[in-house]
Structures are given as C-alpha cells and as structure tokens.
Amino acid sequence: MIFSRDRNFYKTFNSLYWILILHNIITFSVNLADNVMIGSYSETALSGVAAVNQIQFIFQQIVMGCGDAAVVICSQYWGQGRTSEIRRIIGSALYTGAAFSVIVFAAASLFPTQIVGLFTTSPAIVAQGSEYIRIIRFTYPLFALTNIFLAGLRSVETVRIGFVVSVMTLLINCSVNYVLIGGHCGAPELGVTGAAIGTLVARFAEFSVVVFYVFFIDKKLHSKLSDILRPGIAAVRDYLKNMWRFTLVGAMFGVSTALQTVVLGHMQDAAIAANSAATTLYQVLKVASVGASSAAAVIIGKLIGSSNSIDECLPKLKEYVRTLQAIFLLIGITTGVLLYILREPVLSLYSSLSPEAYAMAKQFILVLCFTGIGTAYEMPVITGIIRGGGDSLFVLINDLVSIWGIVLPLSFCAAFVFNWPPVAVVLCLNSDQIFKCGVAAIKANRYHWMKKLTRGEKAA
Counting beta carbons within 10 angstroms of the beta carbon of residue 232, is it exposed (0 to 12), middle (13 to 18) or buried (19 or more)? Predict the structure, then answer.
C-alpha cells in the first residue's frame, strides 16, 4: 500500500504543509513584488536588482542551512519533550547566522561594484546594482535572525506566525515600493533605491514582530534570553557538528544558482532580465516543494526522536516515507501545470521587458515546467526525508558530485565552448533536477539514513 492510513500523519502534515506553503509564497512574493515593480520601471534597473539578488540568494541559502540544521536537531528533541535543549540549539544557530550576516554585510559594504560586476559587464546594470546593494545590505542581519527564530518555532510545529509575519512584510514592501520607486504620493522618484528602502523597512518590521512573539507570546518553548545568549558548550558543539554540512550545501546551491546569472549575463544582457522574470515566478510555485520538505523534516525528525531506538520506529517510518514520496510526485505535476498556465499572465506584468527578453523568458519557463517535476520529488526526499532523518553528509556529497562535477562544467561548455542558445544552457543548468531523482529514490528506500542526533535520554 502506497498511502498511509494513519490519520495523525495527515493531520500533522497538513497542519504544517499548507501554512508553510502560504508563508513561503508570501516570502517569495516579496522578491516578486520588487522584480515586477522594478521591471515596470526599467529593464536596466531590473537587471541590476537581479544581479544583487544573486548574492542575497546565496546568503539566504546559507541562513536557511543554519535554520534547517537547527530544525533537524530540535525536532528530535521536540519528540522527546525537551524544550530547554531546543532553546540552546536555537541560541547556537542565532550566533552562527549573525556571524554569516556580518561577513556578507562587510563584503557588500567594501566591494559593491565588484560584486555586481561578477554578474554582468554592462556599466549601466552595474551602476543600478551598486545603488541597490548600498541599502539592501542592512537587511542581511535582520533576515538571518528572523529566519532562525522562525526555524526554531517550526521545529516545534509552530508555523502560523511565519505566515502572518510574511503577509505583513509583503504589504509593507509593496506599499513603500509603490511610493518610492516611481515617486507617488508626493515622494521623490528613487527607482532601485526606493525598492531597497521598501525591503529594509519590511525586514525591520518582520524582525520586531518575530522577536516579540518568541519572548512574550509563544507558549511552547518559553524562550529565555539567557538560553539564547549562553547556549552552552555542549549545545554549540552539537549544533556546529551538523551545521557546517547544511550551510555548505546551501552555499554551494546558492553559488551554483548565481552562476546561472553569470553564464547568461555574459551571453546576452536580455538573458539576465529574462532569467529573473522566469525564475522568480518559478520560485513562487516551488514553495509547494519547499513546504513539503520542511514538513517532512519535522515529521521524520520527531518520529525518530520520540522512539527509543531506530528499529522501534522503522515500520512506521517506512509507511510515512512511501506516502511522502507519492505526495511529492503529485506536487511536482501540479506545479508544472500551474507554471505553464501562469507564464503568460505573469510575464505580461513586466511591461519594460524587450520583445527578445520576453520571448526568452517564455522559453526558460517551459524548461522549468519539466525540470520542476523532478525538483518536487528529489528536493524534499533528499532535504526533507533523508536529511531530516539525520544524514546530512549524503546531501553534501550528492550536491558536490551532481552540481559541481556535472552540471556546472556541462553548462559552461554549452555556453562558451559549444555556443548553444540560452534556453539550451538553462536546460543544462537545471538537468540535475532530473537525474537526482534516481539517486534520491534509491537512497530513501534503503533506509540507511536514520540517525539519533540528541544527547541523553528522552523525557519521561
């Protein structure tokens, strides 16, 4: 039997999944709003923002790695009812995220032009990107701390606050963007600077609300500032032992995604704007897979943590894993169909796109309709089931081989040696989303990835 008959499984999965989808949709819609509103203002400005967003994307993947590492450990402690240990792990993650944000902030402050110049040779695009990064760098620490707090809450199945905060962030960002990008309501016309200010204001509000919720409203963790500031050597050691694999995977994925812009940006200027428009729409729909991955990680981690041994939970684990894989495939097919249906309406919002960029974006989306089905299966299987079950080393090795050993060399050759058209290069850049499905299926169904990550005994 493929689908589980355990009603508690579906209750838990649905309570996490749909809220996480809505949260992630709104979160990615912040970037979509920036892109659409800037895209309507100027194609050059859109390309400049897209170049800076590659750096931001790498940073976000690292921060998500910090948060995911905490979720995997904390969800096992949650299965044991040990909230004091969860608070200490969250504190360790916050220190790590803050350190990464300081590094990226310093780089953006010292080398803004050089950073944007990595993605394009156009002086006009570099100028727009440099202006944007001058403001947007201040959002990095706020983003890191906010998302690690939300990851900690997610590990104990508290997800509604993330959705509420993301809606607030989107509304604030869009409102400030409208006023400042084009100069409405008597405000000056600031273009990319206005978009950056909108994001900064939204991120500050987001951070403030989440911190207030964690310390004054949340009733599960009963967070204390002392646990956050002094997590303890044992908790820091346990966290760092797992964290480096998560953040390295996040960094590699972020860099590989950014290299798409490098490759396409050195082929044609229009390809940057086309790729930004296509991938931003795709990222909004991809949240269905991201939500499934996050929900699976919590469910699998909690089940392993609540059991006295791996053998004890294995029958139930196999039942859950079979069901999750079927759900992931259904999500992939649905995402591909929606992406195809929405391509025309969304692209029509980018009124400043040239006919060449518009046609190219449509081609890119068709590629993503196909590869996105693979993404919806392999990504939550690998990062949700396998990594959620405690095996983060496999994810690291898998990405090293597939992305850095196969996809990127193939894509660079396609672009600069064989001189293939941009759409063929995009297909090469996303080819791992298909062949990693086989690897994910074999690994997941052998059940060699289950590991206990907690210290001591579970709570009585």
Answer: middle
Q: pLDDT per position in the chain (460 positions), as tens?
A: 788 888 999 999 999 999 988 888 887 777 667 777 777 777 778 778 877 887 888 888 899 999 999 999 999 999 999 999 999 999 999 999 999 999 999 999 999 888 888 777 788 888 888 899 999 999 999 999 999 999 999 999 999 999 999 899 889 988 998 899 888 888 888 888 898 899 899 999 999 999 999 999 999 998 888 878 888 899 999 999 989 999 998 888 878 777 776 777 666 767 777 887 888 778 777 888 989 999 999 999 999 988 877 788 889 999 999 999 999 999 999 999 999 998 888 888 877 778 888 888 999 999 999 999 999 999 999 999 999 998 989 999 998 999 889 998 998 899 889 888 888 988 998 899 999 999 999 999 999 898 888 876 544 3
Q: How far apart are CA 394 and CA 9, in angstroms?
A: 26
Instruction: Report residue 41 CA to chain centroid gap.
Output: 27
Amino acid at 378: E
Rg (CA), the chain: 21
Q: How far apart are CA 14 and CA 246, in angstroms?
A: 25
Distance CA 260, CA 118 (A): 12
Q: 181: which residues sit within 8 A by CB, 6+ positions away?
A: 37, 38, 41, 189, 190, 191, 192, 194, 195, 198
Q: Among residues 227, 158, 218, 195, which one has the least CA distance to residue 56?
A: 195
By the 8 A CB rule, do 151 and 68 touch?
Answer: yes
362, 317 Cβ separation under 8 angstroms? no
